[in-house]
Amino acid sequence: MAANSPFLYQRLRARIRDEERRREESGGWVSLFLVARRAIPAMAMVAVLAAILTVWSMGPSATPSGYGIEDDALTDTRDPGVEQAVLTRPALSRDEVFNIVVERGDR
């Protein structure tokens, strides 16, 4: 029955050629633009979300207790000699630092 219809094979060949032409064109720049139309907004949303999370994580937070140099750290009542050695001299040599650490470790 299908073989009896006129121009069936010509229409079928024309459709096959059109499909082949469409596939060849879709492999070029046109498909790149179609993909970019979807990818760019998604990437922009990810970038905005990352920026929001970065700013939010950098927000003001409470400083943990004992963080930084406190007065208590400088005024150790157990051994005031170390405090005087550190505060009265402009800088300690490596040997002096090593001796302080070794002396504290022996106690």
What structural class is derived from the secondary structure elements? mainly alpha
Distance, first to last CA: 107 Å
Q: Helical region count?
A: 5
Give the overall shape: rod-shaped
Question: What's the rounded overall pLDDT mean?
Answer: 75
Structural write-up:
By secondary structure, the chain is mostly helical. Helix content is 69%, strand content 0%. It is built from five helices and no strands. The longest helix is centred in the middle third of the chain and has 29 residues. The radius of gyration is 39 Å and the shape is rod-shaped. The mean pLDDT is 75.
Which properties best describe this structure?
107 residues; mainly alpha; 5 helices; 0% strand
Task: Annotate the secondary structure layout.
Layout: H1 8-26, H2 29-57, H3 71-74, H4 80-88, H5 94-106
Q: In summary, what is this structure?
A:
With 107 residues, the chain is mostly helical. The protein is built from 5 helices and no strands.
